[in-house]
Amino acid sequence: MDVHLDDSGRPRIIERRFVVPEEFSGFRLDHFLKAQIPRLSRTRLQAIIRTGIERADGRPVKPNARVTAGEQIILRRPAQPEPPCPRDFGVLYDDPHVLVVDKPAGLPVHASAKFYFNTLTRLLSERYPDAQTQIAHRLDRETSGCLVVAKGKRAASKLKKAFQYKRVRKAYLAIVRGVPPWTEEHVIDAPLALVDPRTGKIAVRMEVRPDGLPSETRVRVVERRRDRALVRCVPVTGRQHQIRVHLAHAGYPIVGDKLYAHGDELFARYCDEGLTDELLAEIELPRQALHAAWIEFPHPATREPVAVSSPLPADLRAYLDAR
Fold first, then answer.
1. List 140, 196, 272, 321, catalytic entry
2. Alpha helices in 109-241 (DSSP H)
């Protein structure tokens, strides 16, 4: 896809502005930027400072220059080709204050090292240029379904507080390996924590650990197949990767989950090689079979509850029906 090119065929210029907070006042420029973009190596950071950094006030740009609170550091770089992904989304609910989109699997929500133009944030700004849209919560790139978007700063503040103070209810559908024996709602109550990187495990992995944060997911089996099942999951708490980790901990990992269903080695292979035919044969689906199926939240203007649902996507329904 050529979304990174302008009408003349040249790479677009991506601009990011960093405002220096009070706590970073007096820091060296390279140390401040490292804190803002921690994934960059020291060598790469030095190269960016030489060629792609400006100070809004025009002062010289040197790695050892000191930054001051409130000043703007401007990063400009040519856009790079991005991995292909869906560039469209459905709308489940829309009014002057709030929007609920049906996010397709594979579409990132926010910009990252690999994605800038191919993000939901970018697509929202293109479709609703005057709405001042702000995404109120998050979904993993491979997860599909309901995502709440505020229109305007006031609505964004109200919605984000609703999520913060747990006034929002959510339910997910997942296809899992194996068939859970549960005939009634099953509660998975297992504390979660980010892995200690000193153990050598993948740094983004969450794990069940006695010293972790309290975490609870309620699960009910919706459909059973010979060796797979469709389950409905209600997260009582909202930890990172909570449903994925809890289902794997219970012995029923989500189909297509490269990190929690197959282990660090496979996940590392995927990161290095991409989705090869061999890897796809092993994991069975190109994405994790997790779908944000239902959400209820207080309307930012009226405070009345708004409930929105999204049906199981066609790719997951076809996989399940083929078992």
1. 140
2. 120-127, 153-164
